[in-house]
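Morning!

This is the sequence you dropped in the shared folder:
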Amino acid sequence: MCGAGTSFGLIPLPRKIIEDFRAEAEKDISAFTGKPFPALRVKETDWDALYVWAEQARDELVGATHPCPKLKIAQALRLTSDGSWLAGVTRPVSKSMPRHRVIARFAREDRLQSIWTFNWDCHIEAALESVGLKEEEDVKDQPWPMRYHRVLGLAEYGRLPAGRTIFVHKRHGCIKRIKELEVLDLSKKATAQDYAAIQLRITKDELDNTPDKTTNEYRSFRGQLDTEFSGCPLMVCGWSASEKYILDELESSKDQLRTYPIQNERLSVLDPIFNSDGHTRLGAIYDIATASAHFPILPAVGKPDIDELFLWMQTLYALGEVHKVLTGHPALQVWIRAQIDAATGNTSISRITRWIDGFLPAWVQLCWRAGLVTASHRNRVMNPDEIRLEGEDWYVPLSQNLPQRPELITASYLLKATVESASEWRFDLVTGGMYCDTKAQLILPIPGWEDTADLNVLNSFTRILTRLSAVRGFVNELLLLPLGRNSDPLPDSRKARIKAAFDAVAGLPSSGRSLRVVNLQDI
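The structure's back. Tokens below.
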């Protein structure tokens, strides 16, 4: 469950909206109603000032017979004109905030049953799109989820898709849908039915009042809540749990919620404070003590911020998945276990954090696109060309029931070398590359456990080469690092073939310091 804190720093939060846009919004609404806007019934600094103001604005517009008061309110508060709310769906995952990036990757990993957000913005959906989850796309026979479905109300509940779909419930509305209505309105094509269907919970009475339980919309919402929450742990991220109607519904289902067997893991609240209202009530519903449920974040003193906490979760998850595939590499498995133990109580950003976030997903995708990992789905071995990875940052899950994960094994040896290296490596200059600022040196790790001179393998480097061309001015030396199944150096003959083949594909000169092939020990 995501609240305003999940979008902190990306969009204006409620207090900022009322402070910055209230005066102009009131002028805009008064221009339509033909009378002064009434005085705000609460202090502008009160936590619920925006919602009280919106209730007054709605009543003014209804009294003046505006065809769609909620659309007018959204426009007056600049929700439809400020591009930060829509976020866009072509933003690369590297441009997403870590919190959204990790949520999206966990969704692709099939670790999230659904996402419930009380925010109007589309930053979560943009992150989902960037990792390869497409809205309502009907894709069959892929080994991981490929689709998400936005749920606002009865219209969406009536056509929930089957299969591996991540549901994004937006109980309070979605700017994308409001923008679609605005386009119809400006083109004079909006109907009364379009106006009536608008979803924007922004008024105080809507947030406080118990919904009408006789409606089909409520029955569908109630059924979905029971289906998705029963017996599952709940993570609350940046949500104060101030919506009484949601808490009432959860409380009525507390017996089902408590069927999750590990009591101390039923509820996790990521917030600076564990408030005495909504959070405390959630704790009672899930029958879990505050100390077990609360994960404090900044501005709590000495705590990580929300992005650091999500990166920490991603680090522990990735290390755990890598550890599982190293049964044939006992010494490396012991080393990974030590990194897990060290990271468990330390949320600070480390080399391992950056490597897992910036390099590992690109490396795994490269190996899969090159056809070097045998995939299966529903007990059927899949050909490499059946795996859909056309997106720049489409994410390949680490957790899969496969007999061999050579890309994770080789990545583990590289991780150990990276951590123990005297150089500091950046992973954000060229996705899939390792850059050393002090030497202006770029290393491109490539899979070397098969004959990489095969152009079918090297052609998968097209994206890396495109990125490289954009940053050549920062690079004094380019190094190729072919990785075998362990840390042993490759034979010189293999390295020479790799270099020649890479030169042919990349169009780079084959002599001088512009390109060298190195071993893992060299870094």
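Headline: The chain has a mean pLDDT of 91.

More detail when I'm at my desk.
O.
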